Predict the structure.
Amino acid sequence: MSIRSFIEKIKRRETPFYDRLYRILKSIAVVDIPVFRPLAKILYAERVFRLSAWEWLVQNLYYIPMFKGQCRSYGKNLKIYGGIPQIWGDLRIHIGDNCVLHGTTTLVGAKVFDAPTLAIGDNSYLGYALTITVGADISIGSGALIGDNVNIISYESHPANPEERHKTPSRESGKPIIIEDNVQIGSKSSIMKGVTIGKNSVVANSSLVIQKVPPDSLVMGNPARVFPLFY
């Protein structure tokens, strides 16, 4: 009898012997082992320390140096969580001090533009699964808080005109995006070409921003409407 056929007989409980064996094995599988709390706490702390130490080593000795090598300039105390951002195209990246990025971020430089440039100011946080597509230049000021799954796009990669969609985008399709200091952009929002978002403004979650936003404003909706921001 092969091992496979023996296991099948146990699963099917073909005879009283196999039925008994099945119940024994099942009781062993669900045995509740008593917990010795001091030991469990030590094991848990060891695991947290080991994983954190490994992540720190990988980020600071591998991913962050690789990312800095792709930047034209970078500041001090850069943090990247969960890998390294994907960079596509000949994108010129300038990043300030104390910035935070994620490995799930995608940064794209459109090939039809000569020198697409992305500038990120000091103390800015760029959220999980952020996509920044740079045709005309994009500038993000200091103290920006950009949420998860945000899209920032400064040129028309897929025009609204169906006759133009399958053609190579022109340089005229791009307009710069300027995000001034201390702007907060909510998750799942999209910032489109030619938009300037004034300092201290807030973009609500899931908003589509297609027009200029004055300083100290709240914008929300699809397309987004501007409201005064009350503190």
Remarks:
- The chain has a mean pLDDT of 90.
- Residues 37-68 form the longest helix (32 residues).
- The chain has three helices and 20 strands.
- Helices lie at 3-12, 16-29, 37-68.
